[in-house]
Amino acid sequence: MEALLSGLIGLLFAAALYQMLSGHFLRFLLGLVMISNAATLSVFVAGRLTLGQSPLIPKGADAPLVEVANALPQALVLTAIVIGLGLFAFTLFLAIRAFRRLGHLNANSALPGLRPRKETHS
Prior knowledge:
This protein has helices spanning 2-20, 25-46, 71-102. By secondary structure, the protein is an all-alpha fold. It has one domain (2-49, 68-109): Helix Hairpins. The radius of gyration is 22 Å and the shape is elongated. The chain contains 3 helices and no strands. 60% of the residues lie in helices and 0% in strands. The N and C termini lie far apart (70 Å).
């Protein structure tokens, strides 16, 4: 199962890189989401996929009585999801602002339209 997920992670990274290098800002945004999901999945797979019960210790015991799932990768995955969502929202805001200012989202032709404003000294 881990080999299959590792292959899927590689495909997600490759597709994300292809999208991010396309030169269009919305494709870059899609690639950013895909690379965030691939990184989250890689953290999840690195924590080893084990079948176990919830990582809870019964009252009065010092350690779990049965084999439990590792809680650290789950916590890291939840944190990565929240950070990825915040990054997506910020980048989407930048895309909307760039579209309103430039009228397009093509990164290759965006640079000539971004000229610094002339300062007037009086």
